[in-house]
Amino acid sequence: MKAKIAVIRGDGIGPEITDAALTALGAIATKFSHEFVYSFPLLGGEAVDNTGVPLPQETVDVCKKSDAVLLGAVGGPKWDSLAGHLRPEKGLLGIRSALGLYANVRPAFLYGALKNSSPLRPDIVKNGIDLVVVRELTGGIYFGERGQKRTEKGLTAYDTEIYSVHEIERIAKIAFEIAQKRRKKVTSVDKANVLESGRLWRGTVNHVAAAYPDVKLDHMLVDNCAMQIIRDPSQFDVMLCPNMFGDILSDEAAMAAGSIGMLPSSSLGTGTLGLYEPIHGSAPDIAGTDTANPIATVLAAGMMLSTSLGLYRETEILQLAVENVLDAGYRTADIYTPSTKKVSCSKMAELIALQILQL
Ligand code: NAD
């Protein structure tokens, strides 16, 4: 098949990890005789430097005309002092919003070969980690009214958590549909004991659940959930989360699964166009050193193949290649343990590509 893929390299380690993903995609294209046509629109700090804004209209247009979008990461200290509307992260929120991508799907899976890389005790991870965080992406506190004002207490700042029934319903449906294809369990995360928005969240999720009698639903307060991920991550199948809670808990689940450098995500809307990225940021502390773990971005490209392009066998091969390379003992620095073989970001990509061709 021929597919148009917008590749947003971004900032920090973004170029290194997207290049790695393109190496893996190149092997997939060769093996299965596909033609992937890439464009490279700007976003984030790189866009600020070149165009003056974090999300140029041209980027939105190019992405909308593509079959899928693959993103590295944006942001870094160079742009931290800019006004809020010029910050790289604003571009990220903007592109998700412009493409109508309201559902962020973040699988956290602990590979057998990486059990020693999890910071959790062996007796805790012995049952494995295989969960999916379904995070609402275009609502909640990241999009509510915000500002600063002078009050009798002095300068104060506020951010508003706001959710509509419609926003909760559509993300809940995605979580239940994913659960139907997995172990049929949804844990909905909220703070219903304190927040009004949490009570609306819980009530609406209960309502949606009625249409999915084959899926078991339970509710968990976010503070308990943060603890339960550490206590026994194997209890989770699909975790349904508001925007901010999903942001935080998926990082925690990622670390439990070995490294933040291992976890991909997809951002989906109503159509087939999706945005695929690692869950981590631009890691400015290791940018340019060729030491980043590219696996999250490679696996994000794998999610793209099946979810946006309908290439299921190709996704399986890519995932198997990653697993085989890990089984063979190759590790980037973040997942390295003594007795394994430390490799660079680009070398890891080459090894995965070679595996894809050999499978
Ligand atoms: P981060 O995820 O970039 O890094 C956190 C830690 O994890 C760092 O020590 C980093 O070196 C390490 N790390 C991250 N990815 C790694 C990988 N692939 N391989 C090995 N180690 C990896 O989070 P941060 O430091 O809080 O944020 C840095 C910048 O990234 C900020 O500007 C932030 O706003 C931005 N950010 C962007 C996104 C995104 O583009 N989606 C997401 C989160 C943060």
Key features of this structure:
two-stranded antiparallel sheet, 12 helices, globular, ten-stranded mixed beta sheet, Isopropylmalate Dehydrogenase, 21% strand, binds nicotinamide-adenine-dinucleotide, 14 strands, 2 domains
Determine the N-to-C terminus distance. Answer: 20 Å
CATH superfamily of the largest domain: Isopropylmalate Dehydrogenase
Low-pLDDT stretches are none
Overall number of strands: 14
Approximate strand percentage: 15-25%
Give the helix level as a range of percent.
40-55%
Which structural class do the helices and strands define?
Answer: alpha/beta
Q: What integer is the average pLDDT?
A: 96
Number of helices: 12
Number of domains: 2
Largest sheet: 10 strands, mixed
The order of strands across the largest sheet is 2-1-3-12-11-4-5-10-8-9
Shape: globular
Order of helices and strands: EHEHHEHEHEEEHEHEHEHEEHHEEH
